[in-house]
Each structure stands twice: as C-alpha cells, then as structure tokens.
Specification:
This protein is an alpha/beta fold and about 400 residues long. It has two domains: about 1-105 and about 260-335 and about 380-400, FAD/NAD(P)-binding domain (3-Layer(bba) Sandwich), CATH 3.50.50.60; about 110-260, FAD/NAD(P)-binding domain (3-Layer(bba) Sandwich), CATH 3.50.50.60. It contains ten helices and 23 strands. A hairpin with a 4-residue loop joins strand 7 (about 85-90) and strand 8 (about 95-100). Helix 1 (about 10-25) packs parallel to helix 9. It is globular and about 65 Å long. The N and C termini lie far apart (about 45 Å). It binds flavin-adenine dinucleotide (FAD).
Length: about 400
C-alpha cells in the first residue's frame, strides 16, 4: 500500500490532523491506521465518575467519527522504518508514505503498580482513566458514608494532569451534599511536589482542598495495592530526600497509574530517551526525520497532554505538512496551549488555560482565569462534546489558527 500521508491512530490527535489536512489539501491521499472499533471522548470520564454524565455519551463507533473522505485501515501499526519511509502493520503488510503523522496516544501503565490491575473495579478501587471503570468510581462514591478515601496522582507526565484532583473535588462535593463529608477522611497523595504545575491556580485549588478537609501529601507515590485487605502502600520522600514506605488503609481508592509512550514508539528510532516521539516543540516536526510529524499525548513537547492541546496542535501540523510538501520550511508554531477545566465543585469550573512555561493563555480576555465560574461548568459539561466531535474532529479550526515564525527582516 502507498499513500501520501499515513496517520497512526484515529484518536483525538489523528482525526483532528487528518481533517485539517484534508481541508488544506483535498487531493492528498490520507490513510488512518487504528485497530479500535470505537472512539472515546476521554475528557467525559471525570464527569461519568462523579455521576454527572452518561457513559454512553463518551463513546462512538469508530466508523461514525472517521470522515468519509479518509481511508481507515483497521490495523495496528507495529513498526516504523523511517529511513525507508514505510511502516509495518500487525497483519504484516508494509505501507509506504511521503508524510507520516504519529498520534497513537499514550499507555496508562496499570501494571506498574503491583496489585492494582487485579483489584480495579472491586474492593473499592477505581480509576477514571478507563471507560469501564468510571461508572464504578461513581458507585463507590455513592456507597461511601464514612471511612477513608484516598486519591492518588503519579509522577508527570500524565494526560490531563488535573484529572486526579478533579475526581477528589467532585466526590467530596457529593459527600458534602449528602451530609457525610465530616465522616470521611480524604487524602490526596501526589507523587509530585505541588498541587498544580501553574502557580497562579494553586491558591484557589488549595482553598477547595481546605473546604473539603482533604489532607495533602506530596512526594508520596503509590507503589502497591492490596485490594482484598484494602491497603495502599506509598513511597514517601521527605525534605532530606530520604524515602520510606507508608501503608494506608482505605475504603475508597481512586488510583491513577504512571503513563508512558506506547511500546512500538518507545522501541523505535522515532523516540527520545524517555520514549516519547521526539519532536520540535514549536513546529511538531520530528527532530531527525523531517517528513514525520506528531500530535497528541505521544509527543515529547512539554505541554499539558490534553484534547484542548490537540485543538491547537492539529492546525499547526496540517500547515507544516503542506509547507514541507511544497519544499518550504515549516514555520507554523504551536505555543504549548493546553487547558484543564478544573471541576472544583458541581456547577463550577476553574478554566486553567496555559502554554509553554506556564504562560496564561485565557480564551476570554478580561476574565480572571483563577475564579471558579458556572459558565465554564456549562462549557465543560455541555458544549465541549459537540465542539470536540463536530468541530475539532472535522477540521473546523475554531480559535486555533496558528502564528508563524517571524523572518529575521520582518
Ligand atoms: C480521565 C481523563 C480526563 C481527561 N480530561 C480532559 C479534559 O478535561 N480536557 C482535555 O482537553 N483533555 C482531557 N483528557 C485528555 C485527552 O482525552 C487526551 O489528551 C486526548 O484524548 C489524547 O488524544 P490522542 O489522539 O493523543 O490519544 P487518544 O485519544 O488516546 O487516541 C489514540 C488512538 O491511537 C490508537 N492506537 C494506539 N496504538 C495504536 C497502534 N499501534 N496503531 C494504530 N493505532 C493505535 C488507539 O486505538 C486510539 O484510537 C482527559 C483524559 C482522561 C483519561
């Protein structure tokens, strides 16, 4: 098989790039490779896990989301051969390309925490990062009337870095509404050292942790789960850098595992040392192979791994591919935009929008982004789904036209 553009992954990144590209250059032959039967709207799982959204709204058959003008090959990609411009599929077939876009997302590494996989979905252990588990989170939250609830956050990078604490806020707000909050001991155990990576948002988030009576433990990394005995073990690093292990009994554990690049990327010539797709963070072009571009959670750029980031990345990739094919230097720039709608209580969201280096990039100027607002809740709970499926995945680039590099004499 031979195509102009081969796209690995028909998730948020792969489809957004494919659609933007087809709008830019309708005559290109574009094929998307993905073995999955369904496409997930993952940002909805935080709301499913807190009883706000129906699970069915977060999944659609893959053939219903792939635009008709794209060809979809329902096969996994297993190997890259970037020196010879072809890739290999799971069925053994080779595919030659002029341009390759790598967008297979990341792998949530449940097995990195011994005991976790065996107990997820039972014994009060859940994780909103999996479609089938988000409803169990909500079941556990409703059933808990007293006891200890622990919410964990692994080392960065993870997708939607706010999701582990969003799970806490919405659970605690529900317990408050039921009058049982005083009887529930809430802990947030974070492998990192800060509540949120952009300092402007920390005070408001801390105030919600205080309101819910949650104990914050930093540098506290989940390393083992004993489901039947309901005991979680953490490796805690103190201020002198000494580590020790702490066992905590729990009644509800929301466990978020570490996240890594998919193995077929990590073990390929396309990866950086940490395993992520090695791209230029501005142009999203591969650092070594100039006819390869990346989009979404798999890339090495230090942005917040979110669907919101993809809304801005896909137009950059589509335009830079066009420039590359026209023998021009790709100069459309991604500013590192990402967004994290922090659901601090039912009905209110702090809309954290920021770019590289933590620079605040609010979509609506003049509104203090650190204030929780009901309008942002409406956006998160109602309007982001149609924006995702009907705009972003269809190449309608709303508020996302990229800047270009300035030439030296401009
Ligand atoms: C609980 C949770 C809450 C979140 N909340 C938010 C939020 O509030 N706001 C926000 O913007 N983002 C949020 N996100 C993050 C957002 O969902 C992701 O950043 C986004 O989906 C990443 O898109 P992607 O295309 O990189 O990967 P994905 O959407 O994961 O898609 C990857 C695709 O690649 C395919 N694939 C994998 N391996 C192969 C292979 N070998 N060959 C071919 N295809 C392959 C998969 O089948 C899949 O279809 C959240 C995520 C989670 C889990």
């Amino acid at each position: 098989m031979q195509v102009d553009v081969a796209i690995v992954g028909a998730g948020a990144g792969g489809l957004a790039v494919a659609s933007s590209l087809k709008k830019q250059q309708p005559k290109l032959s574009v094929a998307v490779f993905d073995p999955a039967d369904v496409h997930y709207y993952q940002p909805g799982w935080t709301l499913v896990g807190s009883g706000v959204m129906d699970l069915e709204k977060t999944v659609r058959p893959m053939d219903s989301v792939i635009p008709k003008h794209l060809s979809w090959v329902q096969e996994a990609v297993t190997e890259f051969h970037p020196d010879s411009d072809f890739l290999t599929l799971a069925n053994g077939e080779d595919v030659s390309y002029k341009i390759l876009v790598v967008a297979p997302g990341l792998r949530v590494d449940y097995d990195a925490i011994p005991g976790l996989s065996d107990t997820l979905g039972q014994n009060g252990v859940s994780c909103n990062y999996r479609y089938d588990l988000a409803p169990y989170s909500w079941e556990c939250i409703q059933n808990l009337k007293q006891g200890k609830a622990i919410f964990t956050q692994p080392p960065m990078p993870i997708k939607c870095a706010g999701a582990p604490q969003k799970a806490l806020y919405l659970a605690a707000d529900y317990w408050r509404s039921q009058g049982v909050l005083p009887d529930i001991d809430i802990q947030f155990r974070n492998a990192g050292g800060v509540l949120f990576g952009v300092s402007e948002f920390v005070p408001i988030l801390q105030s919600y942790m205080d309101r819910y009576g949650a104990d914050l433990h930093f540098n506290s990394n989940l390393i083992h789960v004993d489901g039947p005995r309901q005991i979680a073990t953490f490796r805690v690093t103190d201020s002198e850098g000494q580590t020790h292990e702490v066992e905590e009994a729990f009644d509800y554990l929301h466990a978020v595992p570490p996240q890594v690049a998919p193995d077929f990327v990590k073990n390929s010539p396309l990866a950086n040392e940490a395993g992520w797709l090695d791209v230029n963070p501005d142009t999203l072009q591969h650092s070594t192979y100039k006819n390869i571009f990346g989009c979404g959670d798999v890339i090495s750029a230090p942005n917040a791994k979110t669907a919101a980031a993809i809304r801005k990345q896909a137009p950059v990739v589509a335009r830079n591919i066009r420039q590359y094919l026209e023998h021009d230097t790709p100069d459309h720039l991604y500013d590192g935009y990402g967004s994290c709608p922090l659901t601090v209580e039912r009905g209110k969201v702090v809309m954290a929008e920021f770019g590289y280096g933590g620079k605040l990039l609010p979509t609506i100027q003049g509104l203090d982004p650190t204030v929780p607002r009901s309008i942002w809740w409406a956006v998160k709970a109602k309007y982001l789904i149609p924006m995702y499926f009907d705009l972003m995945l269809k190449g309608r680039e709303i508020l996302a036209v990229p800047q270009r590099a300035k030439t030296p004499d401009s």
